Each structure stands twice: as C-alpha cells, then as structure tokens.
Amino acid sequence: MSEQPLRVMVVDDHPMWRDAVERDLAGAGFDVVAVAADGDQAIARFPAARPQVVVLDLQIPGPSGVEVAERVLRHDPSARVLILSASGEQDDVLAAVKAGATGYLVKSASREELIDAVRRTAAGDPVFTPGLAGLVLGEYRRLSDPTPSGPEVPQLTERETEVLRMVATGMSYKQIAERLVLSHRTVQNHVQNTLRKLQLHNRVELTRWAIEQGLEE
Q1: Which end of the chain has the least Cβ crowding within 10 Å, N or C?
Q2: Angle at 43 between CA 42 and CA 44, to 5 degrees
Q3: Domain HTH luxR-type: where (predicted)?
Q4: Could you tell me which of 89, 45, 90, 92 has the C-alpha nearest to residue 64?
Q5: What kind of fold does domain 134-215 have according to CATH?
Q6: pTM listed for this prediction
Q7: Is residue 214 scored above 70 in pLDDT?
Q8: How many Cα atoms are found within 13 Å in the side-chain-facing hemisphere of 16?
C-alpha cells in the first residue's frame, strides 16, 4: 500500500502568493487540504481539514499568525506549524517559536527550500532560514551562561550542550553524527538524555523551552 501524502494547509492573505505556494506544494506531492486568507478562516477550517502541517503567514488579518498557531496547536497538539513570512525580525521569530511553531522561513526561500522545510517540519525537525538559525542558537548560548538569580536548570554535559546547539540550528541526527564523528544512536541518546533532564517530550518543546528561558533573563 502506498504511503498517504502529507496533508497541508496554507494560510496567507495575498491571493497570488497563496496560490503559488498551494501549486508548489501540490506539485511536490502534498495534499493541500485547505487554504485560508485570514486568521478566522484558518481557525474555522482547521478542525475539518485536519492538516499535518500548517504553512502560515504571520501578518494576516483577523487573529494574527501567532494566535492562529497557538489556537490550532491547542486543538491538535500533533499538528506542526511552519511560518512562511516576509519578516525576519527577531521579535517575530521568537514569538512564533514560543507559540509552538516548529519552523520559520522567510518568503525569499526557494521552492525547493519550502518543500524540504514542509517535509522536515512534519517530521518534527526545527527548521529555520539560515540567518534565523543563528538567532535561536544565540538563545542556547545565553542559556549556557550561569544565572545564579534565575531558576535552577538541570546541568547538561558539554557534549549534550554541543548536540543541543546543533539541534537548534535544524540539523538532523545524521548531520550531527557526521559533524561530531559519532554514531546516529549516540546522537539520539544525547538528545534523549537532555529531554529527560529537562522533563520535555520532543525537539520542538526543547527549542521553545530554550527561548522562553533565555527571554526570562
């Protein structure tokens, strides 16, 4: 039996852009189950459409993209949100990740980058436009500095921290293993140990946790 195509919803208030994204994704074999032009439409259509990935613009009429992300993920925590926005501003990126977005691409991304990002987002991999990956990485670096006045954070080993920073930039386990000359299993073990220490469940929660902690400084 052939594998079912990935179910995707596209939310953008610009008709030409929305149509182009829908066409590109459908051409890549995805099942575009719904489109929406504003926040209200997105929230209303999400339950029946049951998309696995929502490709979402931040600057949309009605409830903002950030609020849409929060609402749809509250309705279905297994869904993934990939932001596709004209903005690469720090505040927008951090707000989106805190709302639960798994990835963030700027609209200058190529068709191939978008298709790859949707696939990786569906798998739960944090995906960021290269320049924005450094922003998330910066939040991890801030976390590695001692903060005596802040909440107590479980101590990570040097290797766990190294792997964590690479996960934050959107690297896959395979890429991390090759970079550090480790086995795929060893990399997985480091990530699982980190999740257990922080009492989190997956890499998306890990990214959100890091940013929230960093912003509390």
Answers
A1: N
A2: 90
A3: 149-214
A4: 92
A5: Arc Repressor Mutant, subunit A (1.10.10)
A6: 0.67
A7: no
A8: 0
